[in-house]
Amino acid sequence: MPRILTVAAAQLGPIQRAEGREVAVARMVRLLERAHARGAELVVFPELALTTFFPRHYHADRAEADAWFESAMPSNATAPLFAAARRYGITFHLGYAERTPDGHHYNTAILVSPAGDVLLKYRKVHLPGHAEFDPKRAVQHLEKRYFEVGNLGFPVIRAPAGGLPGVNMGMMICNDRRWPEAWRVLGLQSVELVMCGYNTPSTNQSAAGFEAHHLRVFHSHLSVQAGAYQNATFAVACAKAGTEDGCELFGHSIIVNPQGEIMAQATSWDDELITADCDMDMCTLGRTTIFAFDKHRRVEAYGRITGQVGAVAPPVWSKTEQ
Ligand code: ING
């Protein structure tokens, strides 16, 4: 009996700095309605889905940035989203800026059951960008200023989803998808569905070197397809897209199967729902053959991966006296 879960990526178009949470939430509720009409059982929303991508804006006083954060989840602003998910029986993933009761700040994602239970929480580990204002940059990317490094690791949970009694689900956020370590930690917990929201500029803002525009999307898809294939898992990568206060984010949300194939792709840079029927048992082939970790991994050769942070220079060859 196949274990089919109908999954959706609910891509969001731009959210302008002046637009409040209620604007995003109303659009997300409409996407949940559409997801319900399409038979989707689990919906993935983007990273920082409730507001504009505020790390592009510099706040000299970090306390000013607290306005971008959620101190409660749900709150009055997000309650309509939880109510719609309950109404439609949909499990959903939501990315948002989390301010904890004891004052910590994270770039967070949660997986919420139709009843409103938080099945899983993840806090972004790989924070790109910089912590101080960089006058050389065309656009700031201040995630290292506003967020602390996630302290929950990369957890996986087996929980009910749709008509299935148990699916092994894990999360990562945006830049995490570029790091194979994140995928492998989830793979080592037998993940079957990885959910990843992202906000990715369509052009390179760091001006550190030439990067052809078409490679921005290629690198995103390459990372997700490789991660899914090499860990025998489904993956949903969901964008916040479009032009926010003049800054362009690319869309191209995708749903990928454990063979690394793109099952569905968004073609707009606006609110758009893509769906796929995912047979969770499709993970078994890779997991029991080419990526049977217990049979093939050689951890004694991998010491550098956790023992070293940056790269070191290799020894220089020289012709030794025979
Ligand atoms: N955004 C981007 C991402 O990793 C980035 C930052 C873009 C880093 C392109 C490197 C290259 O997709 C976030 N929010 O992590």
Would you mind describing this structure in some detail?
With 322 residues, the chain is α/β, with parallel strands linked by helices. It has one domain: Nitrilase/N-carbamoyl-D-aminoacid amidohydrolase (4-Layer Sandwich), CATH 3.60.110.10. It is built from eight helices and 14 strands. The strands form three sheets. Strands 5-4-3-2-1-14 form a six-stranded mixed sheet, with helices on one face. The chain starts with a strand and ends in a 15-residue tail after the last helix. It binds D-[(amino)carbonyl]phenylalanine. D-[(amino)carbonyl]phenylalanine binds at residues 128, 174-175, 178, 198-200. D-[(amino)carbonyl]phenylalanine is lined by residues 128, 174-175, 178, 198-200.
List keywords for this structure.
322 residues; alpha/beta; Nitrilase/N-carbamoyl-D-aminoacid amidohydrolase; six-stranded mixed sheet; 14 strands; binds D-[(amino)carbonyl]phenylalanine
